Amino acid sequence: MAIPDSELILNKDGSIYHLNLLPDHISDTIITVGDPDRVPSVSQHFDSIETVIQKREFVTHVGYYRGKRLTVISTGMGTDNIDILLNELDALVNVDFVTREARPLEERINLRIIRVGTSGSLQVDIPVGSHLVTEHAVGLDSLMQFYPLVETGLEVEVSREIQQSLQLDYRPYCVRGSDLLREQLGAGMVAGNTLTCPGFYGPQGRVLRLDLRLPTLVQQFQQFRHQSAEGEFRLTNFEMETAGYYALGRMLGHEVVSLNAIVANRATGEFATNSEAVINDLIAKTLDRV
Ligand code: R1P
Ligand code: URA
């Protein structure tokens, strides 16, 4: 069935609405960063750049790195942008823009999507300067209220216990990312479980001038433990996108991994004095392994 003009919105040049990209523009491996200014920090390593496109916070460079075609896109902040990013990237490869029909199952293309972002550690033993690969992401945001995500038994148990311990009105969602990409790209990094928050301040327990509804949120997350046959599960770090990536990646059938440069430590109160170097090292490591 053809997808209506109001749902699959194409610009006059045939590109997709927000990303401003045509199907031919992107490669099947995509590196994503939050900050638009970080896109050149990735593409400066490319042998050549063939495409530069921008709309709003979505800046895209496509080029070659050691002979491999790569795309780097900035997303801005928050899982609401990840909803746009994942749906539009998927449409670029899995919807025919002429007939407006989704490709049949046997023709579906699976993308490899690698988030390279900054994050705050919750644990003393994960210091600033660490690189962390996310195994499970727990979404405190509302994105998955709108999609029928299927979670495993462990994912439901963990998120239920987090809901109970914080007395939240809703159950967060919990999703494990791609084991394949985690092994390929995360070797030697700390493996962690990431909390994706719908904000940087209150939702991550930061106080400037506003009081919090949950004043002990950081300590409760630090101390949270879930025991299962798979071992002990603890929460390691805060950021604002990973759970959206992992949930929509699972639903759409794309391989997704989140790599985190730890720039803050919420247990010790530190912020990295060399945060640019920490993220740039992670970018170099990612490109080397991709
Ligand atoms: C907040 O400062 C931003 O930094 C983190 C958070 O997820 C949020 O987007 O990621 P990025 O460095 O990828 O933007
Ligand atoms: N990004 C976040 O969302 N939180 C932090 O503490 C650091 C980076």
Strand and helix layout:
Layout: E1 29-33, H1 39-43, E2 48-55, E3 58-65, E4 68-74, H2 79-94, E5 95-96, E6 101-102, E7 112-121, E8 131-139, H3 153-166, E9 173-176, H4 179-185, E10 190-196, H5 217-223, E11 225-228, E12 231-234, E13 237-239, H6 242-252, E14 255-265, E15 270-271, H7 275-289
Parallel strand pairs: 1-4, 1-7, 7-14, 8-10, 10-13
Antiparallel strand pairs: 2-3, 3-4, 5-6, 7-13, 8-9, 8-14, 11-12, 14-15
Helix pairs in contact: 2-6
The protein binds 1-O-phosphono-alpha-D-ribofuranose and uracil.
Q: Can you characterise this structure?
A:
The chain is 26% helix and 30% strand. The chain folds into 2 domains: 1-109, Rossmann fold; 117-290, 3-Layer(aba) Sandwich (Rossmann fold). The protein is of the alpha/beta class. It contains 7 helices and 15 strands. It has helices at residues 39-43, 79-94, 153-166, 179-185, 217-223, 242-252, 275-289; strands at residues 29-33, 48-55, 58-65, 68-74, 95-96, 101-102, 112-121, 131-139, 173-176, 190-196, 225-228, 231-234, 237-239, 255-265, 270-271. It is globular, with a radius of gyration of 19 Å. The two termini are 36 Å apart. Strands 7-13-10-8-14 form a 5-stranded mixed beta barrel. A two-stranded antiparallel sheet has the order 5-6. The protein has a two-stranded antiparallel sheet with strand order 11-12. Bound molecules: 1-O-phosphono-alpha-D-ribofuranose and uracil. Uracil is lined by residues 118-120, 200, 204, 238-240, 263-264.
Task: Based on the model shown, name its key terms.
Rossmann fold; 2 domains; 7 helices; EC 2.4.2.3; two-stranded antiparallel ribbon; Uridine phosphorylase; alpha/beta; Nucleoside_phosphorylase_d; binds uracil; uridine phosphorylase activity; purine-nucleoside phosphorylase activity
